[in-house]
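Quick check before the chapter quiz. The format below is the same one you will see on the exam, so make sure you can read both the input and the output lines.
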Amino acid sequence: MAKAIMIQGTASNAGKSVLAAALCRIFRQDGYKVAPFKSQNMALNSFITADGLEMGRAQVMQAEAAGILPDVRMNPILLKPTSDCGSQVIICGKAIGNQTAQEYWGNKRALIPAVQQAYESLAAEYDIIVIEGAGSPAEINLKQDDIVNMGMAKLADAPVLLVGDIDRGGVFASLYGTVMLLEKEEQERIKGLIINKFRGDVEILRPGLSMLEDVAKKPVVGVVPYAYLDIDDEDSLSEQLGQTDAKDMIDIVVIRLPRISNFTDFAALPRVSGIGLRYADKPSQLEQADLILIPGTKSTISDLKWLRESGLEAQILKRHSAGVPVFGICGGYQMMGQSISDPENTEGGGQIRGIGLLPTETIFRTEKTTIQAQGELLDIEGDLAMLSGVKTTGYEIHMGETVLLEGTKPLQRLMREGRLVLDGCQYQNAYGSYLHGIFDSQQMLECLAKALAVKKGITLNTEALDVQQYKQMQYDKLADMVRSALDMDYIYQVLEGHT
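Here is the expected output.
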């Protein structure tokens, strides 16, 4: 059975996911077979495994850092918010329906066996499991039947490292306060404190570290500097979504939908020199765009209404009429059609007019499509004609079925589980696809950059790094930084139970 260590945080976005990834990489570099685990994840950014199961992107990123394939056992429960008080609930990779927060919390105890089975099965195959918590363990209103923080630590008998984010301020109070709000046996599980996202001279911080150790009765095992690394984030707290002015020679703008999902679809684009990627939630922010991207969303109809009411729909149509290509992925693709119908009440029922850029109609179904696929773009018309014949790979996650109207051209041919199918649509400089990850390949990045540069009449070095090679470089940089910041000898002692 694997040894376990758990990363908990004083709040969401304290850096748990990235530090867990760093430990996965460090342990792998040191010769261990390591896997990540998070019992319950709440995020709109998900991934489909090779066997068609859905899991959170954070554990996918951590699995990549550990040098292993993503496995749904690493994230047995995934909650995808559909509203401010409801989520789609995914258990062991399969959606079981939408639940309100109250319904979910009322049924949570029944999920413990699934969590335990996933963890124990994984732990039987690895040397070390790096467990990530969620939010804060000191949410005293949620501690009953906890399965993601101290409840999970107890289930796995895992020692805990508690992380606080100094960049947002109040790190000493948040670390001390979190410890003090825990039960005595929970406090005893905490074997060390980590201060994350520090900018400046650590020597100035040292008197505060000593005082914190004195009052919290816990050692500070490291101060991790603020990381300028390009690693996939998980959800709407990502700093990437705050990039509203990252203009470059080529200006690509992603619409920041209220329920945006899988924004990592676009993470590879700015890795091409001369391409700037930014996010927009106001019409004026589209005025200089060379390409407009409409991303996926967990609430297509609701976000389409927001797009209309915010004035962004009108601006997208205006920029498209002026010659700017528009590309939609998944929910964005659905929005670009003529209509969306919801006869089975998947998103509240009814029918809504689409943006009208593509001659398609979408009908929502209760059955969810979750599958990996590989394909090839067909003969592409318009400004992106240089993409013709480009190989694609990725995955699909959607509840809808989109039908192309007569005379309409699909975007690509896909191989799904040995079957050839057509995907997406293209029409007069508007393009749409269900394939998440369509922009990730080196060939796609280079051809897209070249097409946009030619359209703009500029010269651009369109050479792109191999995406997987680039990711591995980033994980190694992360591991080097964290290894030098943490007392790894002490952490290994914690793993062995010697503290």
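If your answer matched, good. The CA atoms of residues 154 and 186 lie 9 Å apart.
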